[in-house]
Amino acid sequence: MLTIGALAAATIAVVTHAALLVGPKVNAAEVATRASTPPPPYASQARVVGNNRVTASRNHDVSVWAEQIDIDGDGTIDDATFAYDEPNKILFASKSGSFKCKGGGAGGSGDMLIAVNLAGNLRRRPAGSGFWAASVDEDECGAPFAGIFGCRFDSDGVDTRCGLVHVDSKIDDIMIVTAAK
Q: Would you kindly state where each structural domain of the chain is located, as residue ranges?
């Protein structure tokens, strides 16, 4: 006999698993491999990371540079922008353009931002953990609504919680506004 608690736990597990298949593919692990490499000498300074509606504002200058990387895990090298926030020990990577969907399907296009916590980060989060956020249209890559969709991921790069999000620069994280179904 299934108890209410067991049924609720099973339902949460199914919803969480389904949510992890929603949204665009991202390659947070590839971004994390860049964490040990210092910014190049030609890096410029900026206070905003990302593009359009998928940005993180900083209250200090961060080192910004362009690099070619498969940021979305589709097997194609993309032009990405990196930003190193030294005081907070966070590495950001962003791109604008097309992406493939996690669960397969047609794919879409929009802006993408990945943030990876580095060792010694101000918020004491596990090194290699972080978040990603991408602008999606309704039903694009299975997203239930149009907006900014994203996930938190653990230090192994595995998405842990996903949904419609707001990028919150004050806490260097995303706030999940509506969990994915």
A: 4-179
3-state DSSP of the chain: CCCHHHHHHHHHHHHHHHHHCCCECCCHHHHHHHHHCCCCCCCEEEEEEEECCEEEEEEEEEEEEEEEECCCCCCCCEEEEEEEECCCCEEEEEEEEEECECCCCCCEEEEEEEEEECCCCCCCCCCCCEEEEEEECCCHHHCCCCEEEEEEECCCCCEEEEEEEEEECCCCEEEEEEECC
Mean pLDDT across 7-30: 56
Instruction: Judge whether 116 and 31 are in contact, CB under 8 Å.
Output: yes
Q: What is the pLDDT of residues 103-121, one digit of tens each?
A: 777 778 899 999 999 999 9
pLDDT tops 50 at residue 142? yes
Structure tokens at 101: 């969907």
Nearest to 23 by CA among 96, 105, 92, 95: 105
Confidence grade of residue 179 (pLDDT, cut at 50, 70, 90): low
